[in-house]
Amino acid sequence: MEEGFSFEVDKNLRIISWGEKLGQVMGKSARSALGKVYHEELPRFLIEDSDALALSVSGNEPITLKKYSFTCPQDGMTADIRIEPREEEPDAMGKDEGGAKVTLSNLTCPVLQSMKNAQRFIGLGKTASTLAHGVRNPLNAMRGAVLYLSEKYKDERTLGEFAAIMEDEIKRFDDFISQFLATSAVEAESSVTDINSLLKKIEVLTSYQTHVHQIRTVYEYGEIPPIMANAFQLEHALLNIINNAIEVMRGGGRLTVKTRLEPSFGGYYIAIEISDTGSRISGDAMLQDAPEAQAENRGKGFGLLITREILKGYGGYLDLKTRKGKGSVARLFIAADDKGDKNERQGRHSHSRR
Questions:
Q1: Which one, out of 5, 88, 102, 117, has a CA that is 20 to 30 A from the CA of 126?
Q2: What is 190-354's CATH topology?
Q3: pTM of the entire structure?
């Protein structure tokens, strides 16, 4: 039973105690609730046409209402309600208290879920801050190693290409850590960002993995406008999905990535579609529709969670469809800054890599 989701009434059904957590869910403080008849602050709990609290107090019998439906501040709410008569004891004025204690458990409510999500993000933020401090030294060591290799093998074209990308990524990561520790990821500096260019870099970065696992990749780059964004954040969101796709195709398959501009009500979205032919489901995708508690207990699912939050920060969203044995399709939507002319954005080019 969840502590704090309870209140007490006297024999006249006036509130004499008010749980803090119940107050948060219902948007009512103890100060405003105390002394009022309970159904002024909460919906009346009914058994047929009779008040359940009044029945419990008058009959001096406990009452349980399973999965009782009523309304919370944002949407419908259900809860198991336990009403237990209080022992009749005189108060300070010699009056008989009586009344009942009401406890709510197994609550389902958007407000309560938002509270749980907020606590989860607070915990994640603390962990991320510790991690950010911890990676500074190995990151500097990696930068030194990359600089050494790029200088020693400067005549090797392929190695030089990878070294340049790695050096750029290490610098971007270091800048991101500095911004994160100084402010927050949401407040990270934005600049003009070309999503197609980000994907081309990701295509090179993941080419070794796809080659080793015999994954054929097809990238189709549509004509899309640049946007104001933090490139590191968007790259992280895209890599979360692409790495998930590679994970489920260790025995071979096809990875397809497409970009295009899609009209929406009042504007346009940049759409990035990432599909795979994997015969199994990644750890992240398995948690897509799983209860929140499962995700917390198993310690997975943060990839999709982070991607969703990043997209939400840019006015977008994630649409994921997964069928076991038949592959997955993830569609990432980002609000376009430049709506442009739809007729001028039909051209696209594509290529594949094995």
A1: 5
A2: Heat Shock Protein 90 (3.30.565)
A3: 0.49
